[in-house]
Amino acid sequence: MALDQSFVGRSYPPTEPYEVGREKIREFAEAVGDANPAYTDAEAAKALGHPDVIAPPTFVFAITFKAAQEVVADPRLGLDYNRVVHGDQRFEYRRPVRAGDRLSVTSTIEKIRSMAGNEVLDIRGEVHDQAGEHVVTAWTKLVARAAEEA
Amino acid sequence: MTAKISYADVEVGTELPAQTFPVTRATLVRYAGASGDFNPIHWNEKFAKEVGLPDVIAHGMFTMAEAIRVVTDWVGDPGAVVEYGVRFTRPVVVPNDDRGATVEVSGKVAAKLDDHTVRVDLTATHDGQKVLGMSRAVVRLA
Prior knowledge:
heterodimer, A: alpha+beta, Thiol Ester Dehydrase, Chain A, 3 helices, 19% helix, elongated, B: alpha+beta, six-stranded antiparallel beta sheet
C-alpha cells in the first residue's frame, strides 16, 4: 500500500527532553569498545575544549530514532513497521552532544517515495538543547520492503 | 575542538590508519542495551531466520559507530566530526561462536574543504564485501 503523500513536510512537536548522563555515555562507549578518554574523563574532555565528557558521534541516534519511531507509528501514515529496514543514516553536528545536555527532537517527514515496490521514507530530526540551541541534525532513511507475493 | 592532525599536513589521498573491529553475539547484546535497540534480529537466531536473514546480524548503527573510530582515533577529538553519513548496504552476519565476525575499516582523505575541514571516505568490509556505502565524514582539523 502506498504511503500517504500528504505527510511530506509534516513536522511533529518537540519530544520531552532527554537528559544525557555521564554514565550512559560511558556505557555506550564501552559497548562499542571505544576507549577515547573524551567520553569518560571530564578532564580529558576539557583539555580538548569541551565543558564536560562528550558522547560518541552516533550516540544521539538512540534519541532521534525514538522520535522517528513515534512518527512512523502514526497509523494514518500507513507504514508496515514489520517490514522496515534502516537504509541510510547521516548526521550534521553543530557541536558534540555532552553530559548534562537536555535534548529535544523535532522530527519532520522530508520525503516519501515508492521504489520498486518498496516505500522509502526520509525523516529529519533536529536536536536542540535546553537553551534552544541547535546541536545536531539527524537524517534517517527507512525502507519498508515490498510485501512478498502470497 | 582540538584535533591533533593539522590541515596543512594532509593531502587528498592521505590514508588514515585502518582498524579491525571484532563483533560477537555478546557485543550485540551489550550494544542493544547501551543503544536501546532491542530488535530481535540482533540477538535471536530463530527470529532472524524467520524474517529471511541467514542468521543474527549486527546493528547497522553498531557498524556505523565502529567505522567512525578510524576518524576519531586519527584526529583525537571526536568533537571534531562535523558530518557523518553511511548507507547500510549489506548486513554483518554474526555467528554464534567464539570468533564472531570482524569489520575492517579504512579511510582516506577525499577532499580538502573550507575552514580547515576535510572529507574522509571510509570503506567498511566484512568477509571481503562492503557493508557500508557512501560512508563519509567531514572533520575539522587543526
